Amino acid sequence: MSAGTALTPILHVDMDAFYASVMTRDRPDLQDVPVIVGGGYRGVVLSANYLARRSGVRSALPMTRARRLCPEAVVVAPDYPTFETVSASVRENFRQVTPLVEVLSLDEAFLDVRGAGRRLGDPVEIAERLRSTIHDEQGITCSVGVAASVSVAKLASRRAKPDGVVVVPPDAITSFLHPLDVGELWGVGEKTQAMLHRLGLITVGDVAHTPVRTLQRALGDHLGRHLHELAWGVDRRVVSARNVGVFGGGDPDKSMGAQETFGRDTDDREVVLREVLRLAARVTTRMRVAGVAGRTVALTVRFADFTTITRSRTRAEATDVTQEVYATATELYDALGLQRARIRLVGVRVEGLVPRSSVHRQLVLGEPEHGWSDADRAVDRAVGRFGKAAVQPASLL
DNA sequence: TCTGGGGTCCTAGGACCC
DNA sequence: TCTGGGGTCCTAGGACCC
């Protein structure tokens, strides 16, 4: 193993145009045409292949604009179960390299291969072997960034795209980072980039050579310090198999929610509340499967002009009961006192989740012994046996 | 037919408590 | 009593990520 790569044990593996690659891999007819994954009414682009990107199509772009930019593109609806399957197989490939895998999303992960060197070779050899395994088994390509820290590895993988590997040795970190636009840094989005540009800070090098106090005044204590450190390649964040977010085996979720954009805007309270009930049922069903309950219920309302508000209320005790979440969300909605406001989207979220086993409910005087909670569990059993369509709250029928 | 859905984290003000 | 101050909870909003 060369001394250089032994000092760069962090891999960031990122599938290339993941959704688009998966949707087209078994479709010879889609190999040489621009492809956009997304669609649906009022939707956005989830992913686009490299031919479509050449026309300026990017993820999160409204579909209407994407079609205008690339009218010849084939639009394909996403197939999430297949994405999950492919993603699980790839994660298994990762775990054969090291147990230190931090899954960021369906198509991205950090690997710490510090302990794998003797067995599997240096980090670059490991990266290349993973790439060919994934290509052979899944028929899709990925790119890998190799560096001493997660933030630099993440930037390196972007440079490696598509279908490549980029290594940033420790002595090349600042020469790699400093020419990049500040917007490339992980955690700098549109707003922060614009703010930094207004201050005349265009490149990562500009940020590196700005006093921390100045950055903190503009961006707040935390972000200011954080960006200054990132600009010098200082990143104490470690690859943690615990931080796996939505996927199994990691830290539990802190909140669960669901939201839905209406096919067309509505000002009808009945229509909105029927959707709120549907969302409350969806969320609490997931909570009961996960064995969690939460005290805070948050309602999101987005109006026709895209302004978005949230209102939340913390209940005395944690709940996973559909009717209780629905009741709180309804109170929050009615407290808005809306008069004919055009509503585009509603969302329901339950926060402050704790294991259900840690919740001991006070018996409220007059509360039926077998109340809504038992009703929910009966619904869950029926859904488990007969499928989602079998049981719905009465007002959804 | 402009702008999805699932999350996390940070900030800031006010209440409240010691 | 020339009004301090810290810690925690709650709420609302905003930025960001994939």
CATH architecture of the largest domain: 2-Layer Sandwich
Q: What count of domains describes the coordinates? A: 3
What fraction strand? 15-25%
Strand order of the largest sheet: 5-6-1-7-8
Rg: 24 Å
Order of helices and strands: HEHEEHHEHEEHHEHEHHHHHEHEEHEEH
Main location: cytoplasm
GO molecular function: DNA-directed DNA polymerase activity
Cofactor: Mg(2+)
Family: Belongs to the DNA polymerase type-Y family.
Q: What can you see in these coordinates?
A:
With 397 residues, the chain is of the alpha+beta class. 40% of the residues lie in helices and 20% in strands. The protein is globular and about 65 Å long. The protein has three domains: 6-169, Alpha-Beta Plaits (2-Layer Sandwich), CATH 3.30.70.270; 178-231, DNA polymerase, domain 1 (Orthogonal Bundle), CATH 1.10.150.20; 255-396, Dna Ligase, domain 1 (2-Layer Sandwich), CATH 3.30.1490.100. Strand 7 (142-147), helix 8 and strand 8 form a beta-alpha-beta unit. The strands form three sheets. Strands 5-6-1-7-8 form a five-stranded mixed sheet. Strands 9, 10, 11, 12 and 13 form a five-stranded antiparallel sheet that branches. A three-stranded mixed sheet has the order 3-2-4. The longest helix is centred in the last third of the chain and has 22 residues, at 269-290. It binds a DNA duplex (18 and 18 nucleotides) through residues 38, 40-44, 46, 59-65, 68, 104-108, 186-192, 220-223, 245-246, 253-261, 264, 296, 298, 306, 308-314, 345, 347, 349.
